[in-house]
Amino acid sequence: MNFVNKILQGDTIEVMKNLPEKSFDFCFADPPYFMQIEEGKKLFRVEGTEFDGCDDDWDKFASMDSYKDFTRKWLCEVRRLLKDNGSICVISGMQSIYEIGSILRELGFWVINDIIWKKTNPTPNFGGTRLNNSHETLLWASKSKKAKFTFNYKTGKFLNGGKQMGSIWEFPVCSGNERLKDDDDKKLHNTQKPEALLYRVIALFTHMDDLILDPFGGTMTTGAVAKRMGRRFTMIERDSKYISYGQRRLDTVVPVITDVENAVFDQKPLKVSVKEMVEAGYFHIGEEFFNKHGEKAILVEATGKLDYHNKTKSMHEVAAEMMGQERRVNAFDYLFVLRDGKMVSIDEIRNLYRKMKIKQ
Ligand SMILES: C[S@@+](CC[C@H](N)C(=O)[O-])C[C@H]1O[C@@H](n2cnc3c(N)ncnc32)[C@H](O)[C@@H]1O
Predict the structure, then answer these.
(1) Could you tell me the distance, in angstroms and rounded to a whole number, from the CA of residue 177 to the centre of ligand 1?
(2) Which of 12, 157, 255, 321 has the fewest Cβ atoms surrounding its Cβ within 10 A?
(3) Best residue among 15, 238, 243 to mutate for probing ligand 1, ranked by most atoms within 8 Å of CB
């Protein structure tokens, strides 16, 4: 069965049973929250208009036990479908996030972080009877404690203006042009998630071309953002109406690939040795290496050993000695060579060599 970049229709547990194990890098799941809105109970805004909350049939369960049973079953299937180093992000509200978290742990998932999505424009508590419920929680978990899950740390820092990304994320709820309408100009779906939230999740927790599973597709927000970001997706949904509007949405998406999508900030620099740089003529045996005060040592071995005060040591040991440091330092942060009469950091020379190697 071809399931890549497709919407699969049916009951999510049954559909997942037919997919091959360990196929997916990541799962974003926005399941029924089991809001338990009282049958027939209407909510009114302060000015008197009716508020259209989530009282859809797909969110109804006979009891918390049956909700937990359903949660255990779909999470078991996701677990089977995730690669060993895969991870999952499940979103829900206080109505069910504790049960979901407990079942995740019971099944062997390892909760890495809980993320608070703080809504900048939450629905008010119309009756003024309790706190305004202004956040939802995302549980980010790997398949096991030892899994090497994807985390684009530096991309997160970049997206957060140079500061380490925290676990409280502020976004408005989905509204305006982003909100899908049906042909009668009515809101298509009660729980459409904002693209900005999915953008951050996908940027931080996946790589380019990764295959992402969403077992509760709805308006296909996950697929739309995944496609825009150069990732692949499999969306599962039962409702034909959501599928038909969701497919239209997916068809209009054009990929936009920037440094964030490519996670260039997180790419590890190419490993190169001093020996190969000497062989390529980037350093020369007998040349002088300086610290910032002009003190010098001589490169005497292609392995990177320097002669300093008539003793031959590794360049890192010499750099530490020159800088009066007892701890081990990285010589590439401290030493310079002369090029065209100017002091150039040996790190800069190494970067030039890396660039040349990548181009080759
Ligand atoms: C919370 S909504 C997901 C909304 C989606 N994230 C979006 O941004 O539009 C959950 C979706 O799961 C679907 N659903 C619920 N139970 C399902 C089941 N057992 N099998 C397949 N789909 C299901 C519902 O029809 C609903 O569209």
Answers:
(1) 21
(2) 255
(3) 238
Q: How far is the CA of 214 from the centre of ligand 1 (A)?
A: 9
CA distance 349 to 44: 67
What is the predicted pLDDT for the residue at 194?
Answer: 98
Q: What is the pLDDT of residue 219?
A: 98
Q: Which residues line ligand 1 (CB under 6 A)?
A: 11-12, 30, 32, 58, 189, 191-193, 216, 218-219, 221, 236-239, 242
**Beta-carbon neighbour count of residue 224 at 10 Å?**
20
Q: What is the 18 CA–ligand 1 centroid distance (Å)?
A: 19
Please check the confidence at residue 50 and state whether its pLDDT lies above 80. Answer: no
Note whether 69 and 106 are within 8 A (CB).
Answer: no
Q: For ligand 1, atom 12, which residue shows the shortest CA distance?
A: 216
Rg of the chain in Å (alpha carbons)? 27
Taking only the tens place, the pLDDT of each residue in 8-17 is: 999 999 999 9
Angle between helices 97-106 and 64-81 (to 10 degrees): 50
Residue 46 reports pLDDT greater than 60: no
H or E element that contains 342: strand 342-345
Instruction: Write out the H or E segment, with its range, that includes residue 90.
Output: strand 82-92
Atom of ligand 1 nearest to the CA of 216: 12
Dist CA 190 CA 205 (whole Å) = 26
Which residue's alpha carbon is nearest to atom 2 within ligand 1?
Answer: 218
pLDDT of residue 35: 86
Lookup: tokens for 124: 């008010």
The residue whose CA is least distant from atom 14 of ligand 1 is 216
Q: Work out the pLDDT band at 128, boundaries 50, 70, 90.
A: confident
Tens of pLDDT, residues 321-335: 999 988 889 999 999
Q: Which residue, 299, 298, 291, is CA-closest to 329? A: 291
CA-CA distances (angstroms) from residue 146 to 52, 84, 96, 114? Answer: 43, 9, 27, 18
